[in-house]
Design a protein that fits this description.
With 147 residues, this protein is of the alpha+beta class. The protein is built from 2 helices and 11 strands; from the N terminus they run βββββαβββββαβ. A hairpin with a 2-residue loop joins strand 8 and strand 9 (109-118). 22% of the residues are buried.
């Protein structure tokens, strides 16, 4: 049983969302939080580097539609992984807002991706669905008020 009350809170105002994540993976490995900013894309990764158990990433793309990000991401993935399977986008609800979801997989793993348009930006939430802790992180996500 995971004790979520001891989890850390991510609530960077640049993202207009918050979520909770554990400070340790199940194997006792410390969870790292890595933030990057590249070509107008703001990204935060929460991961357990050696165990792969925790892999949760949120990126914010300014002035890019969900469809545009899907096309761009698909092209990037096809350059990185061979062989690769990637699904079409389907409508879903993410933290009570309408969104799109797709999945991709390669020989060593799989990821689920949620795209959500909000406040003139597209948010991409990417996680490893093979470990339930990542779904628990997703379940703590809340959208904050737009400025």
């Amino acid at each position: 049983l995971v004790h979520m009350e001891s989890w850390q809170v991510f609530d960077d105002p640049r993202f207009t969302l918050q979520f909770k994540y554990p400070s340790m993976a199940a194997n006792g490995e410390p969870v790292e939080r890595v933030e990057t900013q590249f070509e107008g894309v703001l990204r935060v990764h929460v991961l357990s580097p050696t165990s792969c158990e925790i892999y949760f990433e949120v990126s914010k793309y300014e002035a890019l539609s969900a469809e545009g990000e899907y096309v761009h991401h698909k092209a990037d993935l096809l350059r990185q992984f061979h062989p690769l399977t990637i699904s079409e986008m389907k409508p879903v609800i993410c933290a009570s807002l309408p969104a799109y979801e797709y999945t991709f997989g390669w020989d060593q793993g799989e990821r689920t991706v949620i795209l959500l348009e909000r406040g003139g930006a597209t948010y991409r939430i990417l996680y490893n669905p093979r470990f339930p802790v990542n779904l628990q992180i997703l379940s703590t996500m809340e959208w904050l008020k737009l400025p």
